[in-house]
Write the structure tokens for this entry.
Amino acid sequence: MTVDTIAARARALDRLDGKLRHLLPDTLARECHLADLRNGRLVFIATSSTWATRLRLHQDKLLTEARTATGSAVELFAVKVAPLPPVLPEPTRAKPLSATAANHLRSAAKTISDPELQALYLQLASLASSDYFPET
């Protein structure tokens, strides 16, 4: 199987997932998703056994819609229980170092006798936002 074939299959399953979950109540649709359609078997994943049971109540209309959408014989329905992967929050951007903080770091660097530590302070001060204006 080529990468293009795999990607096309993933896109097709994603489209079918959207069509099928659209038939479900919103609370149920959030707790399950289509995992596979192969050899006439429609497989969903639900986040708990409770949601899996509720999903099974809708299997007839899901199978009918899958048959219509794919044009193939879809006769079997299965639900597996597995937690959905967590949605990771986007990393927060660090606030830029203010010009005032940079000035304090530069002032502190002047008082440090250790050249390596002094260089680190000056390097940190160089990360200040672009609104820095040197002292006169």
Q: What stands out?
A: The longest strand covers residues 32-38.
